[in-house]
Amino acid sequence: MNIIWVTVRNLNDFCSTTTSALSNGLIDAGHELALINGDSAGVHSGQKWTHIGLKQSSYKGMKATSLASSAAKWFTTNKPTHIDVVVIDWPLAPRLAPVLNKLGYQIILMDRSPPADVSLLGKLQWRVWNSAWKMVRKGVISQGCVVSEEHLKFVQRRFKIVVDRLHIISAGVDLELFSPSFNPDLSEGLRLIYHGQLDKHRGILSLPMLVQKLISRGIKAQLTLIGDGNAVPALTNIQRHSPWLNLHGRMNQTEISSILSQQHIGLLPMPETPVWSLASPLKRSEYLASGLLVLGIEHSGHILEATKSEWYHLLPQHDFHSLGVDWMVGLTQDIFDMGSKEARMYATERYSWSHSVEVFVDALQSCKQDL
Questions:
Q1: Neighbouring residues of 228: CB distance < 8 A, sequence distance ≥ 6
Q2: Which candidate, 52, 117, 297, places its Cα nearest to that of 194?
Q3: Which among 154, 185, 187, 182 has a CA at the least distance from the CA of 168?
Q4: Fewer C-beta neighbours within 10 Å, C or N terminus of the chain?
Q5: Is the distance from CB of 360 to CB of 3 less than 8 angstroms?
Q6: Mind listing the pLDDT tens digit for each residue in 86-108?
């Protein structure tokens, strides 16, 4: 197939892993792919796909709108031929999809998550998200991709879209990059980690308190947080008098994998709210592939089938600190070693990107057949 993907993700974006992995997978499977986004020329040099960089505003709240307008103009001017499917990220849909539909292209919507921002901007983004999925319901966009079963059910309930037009593309993981190469002994102290957006509404500020309670129980521990967000100023203040807190800015996947391989427990503090209940967090599969045990809040966005509480431990939000500390205090080296092996095996069997690519190809083929 000949595919164009118009994405809001930039190559150096913290959330671009899925776009890169699926794009490489499509090309490795023998398909042609052109990626359109707001990156400047040369940023994608060395990548397998063809890159087309378009003008995009740098102002928050205007990035997607400006890129969608630029893409609509580019398609109208260039009218590329022999294109089987155009993939568009949901923030681009309201402005771009009607133009593509009028030009006769088959379109598939990519939704890796509904709006996560809780600000006024987030409320405006929900309008865009609703508009995007209404276009799927009306047939302007042929089909849509979601990240989890809960996400699919939510979209189906809200928009009454036939299930055959929806495809679940779960977050995968690079099993070679993320591997349990070096997990230190528990006797050296318990090492906990979270990486991703460090935003308050993700429950990030609960993590230093969790470690403080663990230390007060006589357990030596360190907490590593990687990313940026609106919780960073508060975390920086905590770090000044907390030598056990390691705070890092954004890192690339290679840097993150290296640090993960030296940890014991990956944290999922995101609370039980609608957006996190629909999610399929990429960090979860990276934790497991790295041989980490996982501790998190219990809700549908975090629950996995066929896991064991010895290495995948979810707790009610109101008991997260007390029961979480109890669980960590009870860890032994033998429990960790066995759990680490089982976590890695689980990731190997279920989270290879090759599976996600296969589902994506099937979705694209289905969209192509709608012609």
A1: 197, 198, 249, 250
A2: 297
A3: 154
A4: C
A5: no
A6: 999 999 999 999 999 999 999 99
